[in-house]
Design a protein that fits this description.
Layout (H helix, E strand, L loop, with lengths): L3 E12 L2 E12 L3 E5 L6 H8 L7 E6 L2 E2 L5 H6 L2 E4 L11 H12 L15 H10 L15 H13 L5 E5 L7 H18 L2 E5 L3 H7 L2 E6 L2 E6 L1 H6 L1 H8 L7
Helix pairs in contact: 3-4, 3-5, 4-5, 5-6, 6-7
Length: 252
C-alpha cells in the first residue's frame, strides 16, 4: 500500500460522561475504498464530523498527506482536497443539473464573488465532463427538483468531484436508494476511486454494498475500533459477528 492520504491516530471525543469515540486509529491510502461500519451509536458520525472539521477531537491527530487538520474549519479542509457527500442530498432544486456542478466548479476556482449571473457559461465543458463520469450528462438541462433520488445522488457525487478531491467522505451514500441503484452507485464510486486514485471513506448500513464494494472495512462499536481488515477477514471476525453483523451476516 502507498503512503496514507489520511491518517487518524488516537481519536477521542466525549459528550459529558459519554465517550462517543475512544482511541480510534486508522489510515487510508490513495485509490482505496474504505467502509466504516458499526451499530447505531458506534461513533461513525462523530468520526466523520471530526475528520471534516465540524467538531474537534478531545484527543488524537488527523493528518491529510502529512498535514494536520486539527483546528481547521470544514471550508479550509475542503480547500485541501476533501470532498463530502451526505445522507440527505444537498443540491439546488431550482437549478439545473449542469448549473449545480458549475457552481461547485466556480467555488473550486474561487470565482463565487459575484452571484448575479450565477453559473452562466462558465466551466460548461468541465461540468459536462464530470456529469458524463457519473452518467448524468443526458439530464444536464433538467432541474434537480424533478430528478429521481438515485439520480440526485449521482449529481451530488459530480458536485463533490468538482473540487478534485484527494479524499472523499461519503455518509451513507446509498440511503434511500433501490437495491439495484445502490450497487450501481457504489460500483461507480469504486471505479472512480481506483481510476483517479481518490481515497474514499464511507459509512453504510447495507452490508451487500459494504462487502461487495469496499477494499477494506473498519468496524466501530461503542466508540472503539474493534476490527480493521479485508472484507473476508472482517466477515469471519467473531467479535464483529457478535456485536454487529448477526442477522446482517446472512446477507454479507
Amino acid at each position: 500500500m502507498s503512503a496514507p492520504i489520511l491518517r487518524a491516530s488516537g481519536l477521542s471525543k466525549a459528550y459529558g460522561g459519554v465517550r462517543a469515540v475512544s482511541g480510534v486509529s486508522f489510515a487510508l491510502a490513495a485509490g482505496e475504498v474504505l467502509a466504516m461500519i458499526g451499530p447505531n451509536g458506534a461513533g461513525k458520525t462523530t468520526c466523520f464530523n471530526m475528520l471534516n472539521g465540524q467538531i474537534d477531537p478531545d484527543l488524537g491527530t488527523i493528518e491529510l498527506a502529512g498535514r494536520s487538520l486539527i483546528g481547521l474549519k470544514p471550508r479550509e479542509i475542503w480547500r485541501l482536497g476533501v470532498g463530502r457527500t451526505f445522507q440527505i442530498t444537498a443540491t439546488f432544486g431550482s437549478m439545473t443539473v449542469r448549473e449545480n456542478v458549475q457552481m461547485a466548479l466556480l467555488s473550486h476556482h474561487r470565482e463565487l464573488r459575484s452571484m448575479v449571473s450565477l453559473a452562466g457559461n462558465r466551466h460548461v465543458a468541465d461540468a459536462d465532463a464530470l456529469l458524463e463520469q457519473v452518467g448524468m450528462l443526458g439530464q444536464a438541462g433538467r432541474a434537480c427538483a424533478v430528478l429521481a433520488y438515485g439520480d440526485l445522488k449521482r449529481v451530488e457525487l459530480a458536485v463533490a468531484l468538482a473540487n478534485r478531491p484527494r479524499l472523499l467522505l461519503m455518509d451513507e451514500p446509498t440511503a434511500g436508494m433501490a437495491p439495484k441503484e445502490r450497487g450501481e452507485l457504489m460500483q461507480l464510486v469504486a471505479s472512480l476511486a481506483h481510476g483517479a486514485n481518490i481515497a474514499v471513506l464511507f459509512t453504510e448500513h447495507d452490508m451487500d454494498v459494504v462487502f461487495n464494494h469496499a477494499d477494506r472495512i473498519i468496524v466501530l462499536n461503542r466508540g472503539e475500533l474493534i476490527a480493521d481488515g479485508r472484507p473476508e477477514d472482517v466477515r469471519a471476525d467473531r467479535r464483529v459477528r457478535e456485536v454487529y453483523l448477526g442477522s446482517h451476516s446472512a446477507h454479507a
